[in-house]
What we know:
The chain is 48% helix and 11% strand. It is an alpha/beta fold. Strands 3-2-1-4-5-6 form a six-stranded parallel β-sheet, sandwiched between helices. GO terms for molecular function: beta-phosphoglucomutase activity; hydrolase activity; metal ion binding. Belongs to the HAD-like hydrolase superfamily. CbbY/CbbZ/Gph/YieH family.
Amino acid sequence: MLGLPDDVTVALFDMDGVLTTTAVLHQAAWKKAFDAFLTERGDTSGPFTDRDYLDYVDGRPRLDGVRSFLASRGITVDDEAAAAIGDAKNEEFLAALDRDGARAYPGSLRYLQAAREAGLRVAVVTSSKNGAKVLDAAGLAQFAQHRVDGNTIVAENLPGKPAPDSYLRGAQLMGVTPAQAAVFEDAISGVQAGVAGHFGYVVGVDRVGGGQADAMRAAGASIVVTDLADLLQS
């Protein structure tokens, strides 16, 4: 019914772009923060692009995303400057969240409801430090038995995606082995984390089209869908 192997008893969901529509808010906030930084330093390499977001930032903890993108442009900054870019991005994101709100994808809500009815247990694993606020705003907090977010990653000194540690922590909190859990991700870095952690199933959620689905399969996704409701037809 849920499109998962029979021995999977726990679902570990990324949040932005998988459960909620807030990935677009993150992307816009990153663009504003990075473009302001590049303009201020007189950089001529061009503005932050959609491809930059997918390749260097999407799914990663905030400071990891800053350093990954800057490295792609051959830019090195100190910790204070990196933190300032991350803070500017977060201010933009929170302003957009207050203005536009957070919504659950209808198909994701259907899937969560079906999972609850089927007895599949759920945790949320996100690099965002705003995980609790977004889940509450989207009305999804009720579905998650545990949450591993950006605050957990910092407090427990966990490597961020594409390292598997945040997902492994989610499985541990749920009391299962990785083989008994499925990972649901819209970011290549998250798919890579699921594969590296040897999880029982890795679902890639392609919200952007283009070559993203092929990239997810190349990264090791067990299946790629455009909406979680697609799994209910399996």
